[in-house]
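Request: Could I get any protein with tokenized structure?
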Amino acid sequence: MKMTSNASNPPHLDCHLTIARAKNITCSKNDRLFIRYHLSTSDNMRSARLETREAASASDPSWNDHVHLECHGSAEDLGRQKVVFELRSRRGWGRSSSLLGRGEVAWGDALASTPDMSMERWVVMDREGKVGEGEIAMLLVGMKVGVPEKVGRRRIRCRRSLSECECEHGGCLGAEEDVFAFAALLVDVC
């Protein structure tokens, strides 16, 4: 994939991440399982940390969480980054969680997997806690990368008076929006 850019129009990609379910997990029925995942930022020095909601059942944990990211940078830059998944358990409200397993997937795997740059795979979770005897804990994830369709931009002009502001929310302060590595982070529960 080749993307062109200039200083006023940096390249960006639409990245979709789905966390479906886990299998081969042995835990107490009182355990509340969730996934914590870390997404690399553009400088690879920090990561954004997100969590799924807690699974309804510890015996058959599923989430079907979908995250849409607008990643600024080239496909080559994205291919060097990864997502780290942690299967975690929490007992009781307000308590800290314990790590059951950890696995990772590189965005480059999705970029190179198929012509439509998508994949679905069972990620092996390295043992950190209890798992079934002789079984390997696994997490089903999906990843897809695409080039967004061109969308026309409308420049909003802000006046000195809030009553003259042209933006929809009327709370404009006349400042430009900050641009982040993950500009749009939308979490939808399917």
Summary: The CA atoms of residues 39 and 136 lie 24 Å apart. The beta strands are 12-23, 32-40, 47-51, 62-72, 82-90, 98-106, 118-124, 126-127, 138-146, 182-189.
